[in-house]
Design brief:
Number of helices: 45
Strand order of the largest sheet: 1-2-3
Structural class: mainly alpha
Largest sheet: 3 strands, antiparallel
Distance between the termini: 30 Å
Shape: elongated
Helix content: 55-70%
Radius of gyration: 44 Å
Strand content: under 5%
Number of strands: 11
Length: 1001
């Protein structure tokens, strides 16, 4: 044995390394504030340090030095960190994103432009735009058409073959040169009538996708013809596109066709308008220069030549023979009336409204009215024509259901319901325009007129979609009565109630109406006779019920759903609707615990027989529960609620298997652990432990859940000790033993070895705290026996990491606990430490790793403490080895022998490092072992003194591979020990050693 270690008795202060100490006045990372003061002829600076002391300097050199001491980021951001600077910038327009900044700048321009005029209204400043709106769309009270366009194209599709009539998709036209005005007029009239002379071709058997492509080609041809100054060709394309809207051969595609064709007409109208505007140059008052018209021009600014050109366009369109293209093309260029007269829009809109009466097909007519209203809303604030269009619609509304239309529907092989749905986009837009700036009394009149019609379901559905939600909600009782009694041919009553439920869930009716609305609505919904319609309605009314009613009404609602779903296993066909109902009930509930305790809640969950659906529902329920209870201190102590959540947790746990992904497992574990943490029976610890026992039997597939249970039980045992203030009675002692036994039995069920080791150590510490010594020994022994099973490499967050760091941390924690663990009389002196030294070499350390030697150094620290007469800390009522052995010579001899053994292992490792030429690791280990020896070993023993000198010489020999200041720090520490050591022999040896050390530096 190379070492002859004899532990020395010393004060605890001697165990601590000596470091230079100084008083810190404030946090070292606190920023300094620099204030530069400038005056005539001088420039001084006041620096406020972290401790509040002000330092003044008047010379620039001092200023530069202080400035360099600041962090570069602080200098760049005026003394504040980047995140604070960015947050400060958010208060100004410069800190906003580019779009927000542009909006802010435009608002500033508008604010300057819209200065109040003493004569009333808004005064226009040069270059600025007045804030006063000029048309209905600028009021932002209506959903833009662009937002509806995509939904219409996606909804109204077809698989039937389509046809298109045109003369512009197989090549361009030959333009004949014209010399005289009469030839030009003659040629243009020939072009307009050309499609009547056999040049028009019909393309048949087009799929929907091919049809859309052809329409896009027409759009491209129109723009290309316009750019090539072929105005008549562009007009012909617009006319032929408009003629396509008279074709209803594939009627279910008509709304989408309307969207595609009107897009082309909008482009044509915009091209004509911009062309006229560019030609309408005028002389600005006070100058002789010709300038283009401003955005907000008046007809008086337009020169006569531009007005004549504008009138020619309207004359060309008036010469179109067929009504429908003449209407659509004139509507497309309706904006051009602004070049002619100030009040022409209102007259033209009312004239075109009357012209639409000549269209016989009600579907074609209502979409023509929709286009008229859509264009008109972007031109004027006048709403008279919209009301007239609605009057005309109501006048001919009965024709939708007449025999001729029904025969047409049968010929197209679609249902009346499908045909009625074609009217919704156009009717919704018109009714939305009617509702703008309309009083409630006026809307009541419209409602009265609509409900008096035969089969008013279409009108009521469109009205609920278009009118203000607060208007609908304030008359919810009246709407329920209407929807329950009207004829719904072509629509379903369930569809109407679903829409009403959607409105009321976001805008609730007045408080006094809510109960009556729910009662009447559910009575009608339950009597629909169609389970599918019932579920669609219940899906929407579930949110209204859960938001505005108590548990009694919610339970009745769930009971109604159960009654409808149970017969003939109908629930198997409506899993989606049931899932939505459960989600809305739980997520909107004001008392989530009360919802879980309802009589009909768990039976509703039992309807989900399909495993994947049931898993998703249970996960959503626990997610909603976590979201509802994460921000409060609410606890669960109701057995019914506990059992309900336990049932849901069981479903999630049983779904976990070897194929379950790590993310899925983590999500489920997080939900269940939150539930476990919320269960609290107060001072009824036995019931709390019973819950944990039941949870262990249910949640056997999730390591995280089992770990949470073990932590909870340990906390329960600790709480018990706190209540009895460490003085256990027979009953509390038995209870904490039951808690310890629970943990010891549960830990082996966990798969991860490292988690088991940590839980064994924690459970052993809790058992030791409660004076359950036998249980503590069992836990510590089980933890140590797991060390060889720890894999050397593990994957964490997609990265492979070594477990050596974990092993070292675990051993250090274990040794700190082992200081106060008394030896088991049947196992011998320091049995657990001997077991640790036995199992540690069996862990697969990496080659050339110094981790084992580092652990041995910590073992020497432990043994040094174990040899002391009084240990640095204790546990109440636990007799540690210092009291148990009383520094018995035999015990001290055992400790010294173990120190010698560990020291020899370290010396062997030093030799191995020398053979592998690892000089840096060898020098560091030599210094570390040197410090352990001078701190805990008796240097009066010749072998130890000689070993200490040799270790120092080895470290000095390799001084070029270690930190330069490290040797001096060790010398300082040795001098500190020599000054404070109580033993005279030890002091003399330290001074002798110090002389030898200084001689080698």
């Amino acid at each position: 044995m190379a070492a002859e270690w004899v532990c020395v008795q010393r004060q605890q202060e001697e165990c601590r390394r000596y470091l230079d100490q100084f008083k810190v006045l404030d946090h070292p990372l606190k920023q300094s504030t620099i204030t530069v003061l400038e005056s005539r002829g001088t420039r001084s600076k006041v620096t406020t340090a972290a401790n509040g002391i002000s330092l003044s300097s008047s010379n620039s050199a001092a200023m530069s030095a202080a400035a360099l001491s600041l962090d570069p980021l602080n200098i760049a951001f005026d003394g504040s960190d980047p995140l604070s600077q960015f947050a400060k910038q958010q208060a100004t327009s410069l800190g906003k994103d580019p779009l927000s900044r542009m909006v802010a700048e435009m608002e500033n321009i508008d604010a300057v432009a819209a200065k109040p005029n003493p004569l009333g209204g808004l005064r226009r400043i040069s270059g600025g735009k007045a804030k006063e709106p000029t048309n209905l769309l600028e009021l932002d009270l209506i959903e833009p058409w662009a937002a509806r366009r995509g939904a219409i194209l996606n909804k109204y599709t077809t698989s039937e073959k389509l046809s298109i009539v045109t003369s512009f998709l197989t090549g361009g036209e030959t333009i004949k040169p014209q010399t005289t005005m009469s030839e030009k007029v003659k040629y243009r009239l020939e072009q307009l009538d050309d499609f009547d002379e056999g040049s028009v071709r019909q393309m048949l058997d087009l799929s929907q996708q091919e049809y859309v492509v052809k329409i896009e080609q027409l759009n491209h041809e129109l723009v290309q013809a316009w750019n090539q100054d072929q105005r008549v060709k562009a007009l012909k394309i617009a006319i032929q596109c408009s003629k396509l809207l008279s074709d209803t051969s594939v009627i279910q595609f008509y709304p989408s066709k309307f969207v595609l064709i009107t897009d082309i007409l909008d482009i044509f109208g915009r091209l004509v308008y911009e062309r006229l505007r560019t030609k309408a140059d005028y002389v600005h008052p006070g100058t002789r220069e010709m300038t283009s018209l401003p955005e907000s021009f008046t007809p008086e600014m337009v020169p006569e030549s531009a007005k004549e050109t504008c009138q020619n366009w309207f004359y060309k369109i008036a010469s179109i023979r067929e009504l429908l293209p003449r209407l659509y093309v004139e509507i497309a260029i309706l904006r051009c009336y602004s070049f002619l007269a100030q009040d022409e829009f209102g007259l033209a809109l009312r004239r075109l409204t009357k012209m639409i009466r000549g269209i016989g097909d009600p579907l074609v007519a209502i979409y023509a009215r929709c286009y008229l209203c859509r264009v008109g809303m972007g031109l004027t604030l006048d709403r008279t024509y919209i009301g007239e269009n609605l009057d005309d619609i109501l006048t001919v509304y009965h024709t939708i259901y007449n025999g001729g239309i029904r025969s047409e529907i049968a010929r197209h092989r679609i249902t009346l319901t499908g045909y009625i749905a074609l009217y919704l986009p156009a009717l919704d837009w018109i009714l939305q325009g009617v509702a703008i700036l309309t009083t409630d009394n006026q809307l009541d009149d419209i409602l009265q007129r609509c409900k008096e019609k035969k089969n008013p379901a279409l009108l009521l559905q469109s009205m609920m979609q278009s009118f203000r939600s607060d208007f609908i909600a304030s008359r919810a009782t009246h709407f329920v009565q209407i929807l329950s009694s009207i004829s719904v041919e072509g629509l379903s009553r369930g569809q109407l109630f679903r829409l009403l439920g959607s409105i009321l869930s976001h805008t609730p009716p007045p408080t006094e109406q809510r109960v009556a609305v729910l009662t009447s609505a559910m009575k009608t919904i339950s009597s629909l006779g169609n389970v599918e319609e019932f579920m669609q309605c219940a899906e929407m009314w579930a949110q209204y019920t859960s938001q505005h009613f108590g548990l009694k009404e919610v339970d009745a609602f769930l009971g109604n759903v159960l009654q409808q779903m149970t017969p003939n296993r109908l629930y198997e066909q409506h899993y989606h609707e049931l899932q939505v109902i459960v989600d809305k009930i739980v997520s909107n509930a004001q008392d989530v615990h009360g919802i879980l305790a309802l009589d009909n809640f768990l039976p509703l969950l039992d309807l989900f027989q399909k495993e994947s659906v049931k898993l998703e529902v249970c996960k959503n329920v626990l997610t909603s529960y976590r979201n509802a209870t994460s921000c409060d201190n609410a606890i669960i102590n109701d057995p019914i609620v506990t059992n309900a959540l336990m049932h849901i947790a069981r479903v999630l746990n049983d779904s976990v298997n070897a194929l379950t992904g790590e993310d899925e497992r983590r999500q489920i574990s997080g939900l269940i652990c939150h539930f476990i943490a919320k269960v609290d029976f107060g001072r009824d610890f036995e019931q709390q432990l019973a819950f944990y026992v039941e949870a262990r039997s249910v949640l056997s597939n999730l390591d995280s859940a089992l770990s949470t249970l073990i932590h909870s039980v340990n906390r329960l045992a600790t709480s018990t000790r706190r209540i009895v203030k460490g003085q256990h009675t027979q009953k509390t002692a038995a209870f904490v033993k039951a808690c310890t036994a629970y943990c010891f039995i549960t830990i082996p069920s966990i798969i991860d070895v490292r988690t088991r080791m940590e839980l064994y150590l924690q459970s052993g510490q809790v058992a030791l705290l409660n004076v359950c010594l036998q249980h503590a020994d069992s836990c510590f022994e089980a933890a140590l026996n797991l060390i060889p099973e720890v894999p050397r490499m593990v994957e964490s967050d997609g990265k492979v990491q070594s477990t050596e760091g974990f092993i070292k941390t675990f051993v250090v924690n274990f040794l700190s606990t082992l200081v106060i663990v008394p030896d088991n009389p049947t196992q011998g002196v320091l049995y657990l430490l001997r077991l640790l030294l036995e199992v540690m070499p069996r862990y697969p350390f990496e080659t050339n790793s110094n981790m084992l030697s580092s652990i041995y150094l910590h073992v020497l620290d432990f043994l040094s403490v174990a040899a002391q007469e009084v240990y640095p800390y204790h546990i109440v009522n636990v007799i540690s080895n210092d009291e148990l052995y009383g520094s018995d010579p035999k015990f001290i001899a055992e400790v010294n022998e173990m120190c010698c053994t560990v020291c020899d292992k370290l010396l062997q490792h030093l030799k191995a490092l020398l053979e592998s030429n690892a000089l840096r690791a060898q020098a560091q280990l030599a210094l570390d072992l040197f410090l352990k020896i001078i701190t805990g070993a008796d240097l009066s023993v010749d072998k130890m003194f000689t070993l200490t000198v040799n270790l120092w010489n080895l470290a000095v020999k390799n001084r070029n591979v270690i930190e330069p200041k490290q040797l001096q720090t060790v010398v300082t520490y040795t001098e500190h020990l020599a000054q404070i050591t109580q033993m005279e022999s030890q002091r003399q040896c330290l001074w002798m050693l110090l002389e030898k050390m200084k001689s080698r530096i």
